[in-house]
Write a structure and sequence with these properties.
There is one protein chain. With 294 residues, this protein is mostly helical. It has a single domain (2-122, 139-292), classed as ABC transporter involved in vitamin B12 uptake, BtuC (Orthogonal Bundle). Helices cover 77% and strands 3% of the residues. It has 12 helices and 2 strands. Strands 1-2 form a two-stranded antiparallel sheet.
């Protein structure tokens, strides 16, 4: 049982970090622009399919991840210029409805291009034996690699936000958009850059998730509800809060699935996050002005 518990904990950390990558772009866009990007999960799905396509074409999973980030970035720029920016100054409901429509378009295109059946990506890199402290686990090296890569990306985003000009301007706009604009921050340009980065990271997460789950048209829509909860519970604009919330939900699901059914594990994970939100309405590490209105 100890072997299973440790393996499930490692699984939970890996999946939690992938969830955090997806939620990262959503939390920044929501905090920065006030836009509920319901199409965000579509970029997670797009990244998975691009990775799968490149892998089946040239046989390189890692090249597929690079392609997933590039394609997601290009499509993200187009979405920002054509839909998000024009609607960001209008009613939040209009932008939400438009982005729901975009997610449906992505879903139907995926069904048309790749078909409704799940696409399986093999788990690369083989297994490693963990034989310490009385454990005897043969664990996929890929999960450890995905864990490490996700950590590097999240740490890089934290450095970007805290130690670069555009990152500091982004945090200023998240804290108070109007004051930041009056102080000379080009909020539109910052929004465009951060929106694109968010889509690139979501595409990377979709590619990383391919060998862990599978790639299928509904994967983004199924995940988006959980990502919204992670975003709110973690706190808008907070990478640390997002990682904590994503890890909590993934660990809760992973460990509880040993003892109860998968559906009940999903319910328990949401109950835990909602309990945190009741105790701390601004989220774990949320910026006060984001949740209190402007």
């Amino acid at each position: 049982m100890a072997d299973v518990l440790v393996a499930q904990c490692l699984n939970g950390i890996t999946i939690g970090l992938i969830f955090a990558l997806v939620a990262l772009g959503l939390t920044i866009v929501l905090g920065l622009m006030g836009v509920l990007n319901f199409a965000h999960g579509s970029f997670y799905m797009l990244g998975g399919y691009v990775t799968y396509t490149v892998f089946t074409t040239v046989g390189s999973f890692w090249l597929g991840l690079v392609a997933a980030m590039l394609v997601s970035g290009v499509v993200g720029v187009l979405l920002y210029l054509t839909i998000v920016r024009p609607l960001s100054q209008r009613s939040p409901l209009e932008a939400l409805l438009a982005l729901v429509g975009v997610s449906i378009i992505f879903l139907q295109l995926a069904n048309t291009i790749w078909g409704p059946d799940p696409k399986l990506l093999p788990v690369p890199l083989g297994h490693v034996r963990i034989g310490m402290f009385g454990l005897d686990i043969h664990y996929p090296v890929y999960f450890l690699a995905a864990m490490g890569l996700s950590t590097v990306v999240l740490a890089s985003m934290a450095l970007l936000l805290r130690h670069t000009d555009i990152g500091i301007r982004c945090l200023a706009a998240i804290h108070d958009r109007q004051v930041a604009s009056c102080m000379g921050v080009n909020v539109d340009r910052v929004s465009a850059v951060m929106f694109t980065i968010g889509m690139v990271v979501a595409g990377l997460a979709g590619g990383l998730a391919g060998p862990v789950f599978s790639v299928y048209p509904n994967m983004g829509i199924e995940l988006i509800g959980m990502i919204f909860v992670i975003t709110i519970v973690g706190g808008m604009g907070s990478i640390g809060g997002t990682v904590i919330a994503a890890t909590i939900i993934a660990m809760t699901k992973s460990i509880s699935s040993i003892y109860i059914s998968g559906n009940l594990a999903d319910i328990l994970a949401f109950v835990v996050l909602l309990a945190i939100l009741l105790l701390r309405p601004r989220g774990i590490m949320g910026i006060a002005s984001v949740m209190d209105g402007r």
